[in-house]
Amino acid sequence: MKIPLKSPEEIKIMQEGGRKLSAVLRQLVEMAKPGVTLADVEKRAQDLIKKTGGVPGFARVAGYKWATCINVNDGIVHGIPDETEIKEGDVVSVDIGLFYKGLNTDTCRTVYAQSLSQKPKAKSQKHEDINLFLKTGKQALEEAIKQAKVGNRVGHISRAIQKRIEGAGYSSVRNLTGHGVGKKLHEPPQIPCFLDKK
């Protein structure tokens, strides 16, 4: 597997595109509240991406016309943004890509959908469970990023993710992986979220 290397100029473009995409994603997850439809989020994504000077990266994939993949609750990836309405207490993942100056960036964030007026005074067990689940995912990402350094291998990243996720009692997805980005939306290396097979 040959990993396509980026020039310093390409890295600068991807950093710029990444900052733009991060700002778009931040606005999308802020609107992922009860009563909003997945199609509403998608429309906003299209509008925001247009303002960046780029184009929706996912919409460049043959047969796919949307800017986002949105999953609710037990969906993992590749959910199509339809008229599904977000409900109180849903777990919503917004995945989005930006093709900017010839290069792709791709990011995702998962949030707990709550309206400000409905936040419980006393936290329920479900509330605690969802917050622990999301906190664990964030910690796994942070620990994985620490392993992305010269001298390490992809396996160091995978092991860090698996250790945190499975150490908290959850399971790592085995039939999908993370991936590189660049001139193509999906580039080597594949980055599994596990190292040890069960």
Describe this structure in words.
By secondary structure, the protein is of the alpha+beta class. It folds into two domains: 114 residues, Alpha-Beta Complex (Creatine Amidinohydrolase); 79 residues. The chain is built from four helices and six strands, in the order ααββββααββ. Strands 1, 2, 3 and 4 form a four-stranded antiparallel sheet that branches. Strands 5-6 form a two-stranded antiparallel sheet. It is globular and about 50 Å long. The relative contact order is 0.15. The mean pLDDT is 94.
What's a concise summary of this model?
The chain is of the alpha+beta class and 198 residues long. Helices cover 38% and strands 18% of the residues.
Main beta-sheet strand count, sense and barrel state: 4 strands, antiparallel
Sequence stretches where pLDDT stays below 50 over 5 or more residues: none
Q: Can you tell me the CATH superfamily of the largest domain?
A: Creatinase/methionine aminopeptidase superfamily
Helical residue percent band: 25-40%
Q: SSE order, as H and E?
A: HHEEEEHHEE
Oligomer state equals single chain
Number of strands: 6
Q: In total, how many domains does the architecture comprise? A: 2
> How many helices in DSSP terms?
4
Estimate the global geometry from the Cα principal axes. Answer: globular
Q: Please give the radius of gyration in angstroms.
A: 18 Å
Give the amount of beta strand, in percent. Answer: 15-25%
- The overall pLDDT average reads 94
- Indicate the CATH architecture of the largest domain: Alpha-Beta Complex
Distance between the first and last residues' Cα? 24 Å
By CATH reckoning, the class of the largest domain would read: Alpha Beta
According to CATH, the fold-level topology of the largest domain is: Creatine Amidinohydrolase
Structural class: alpha+beta
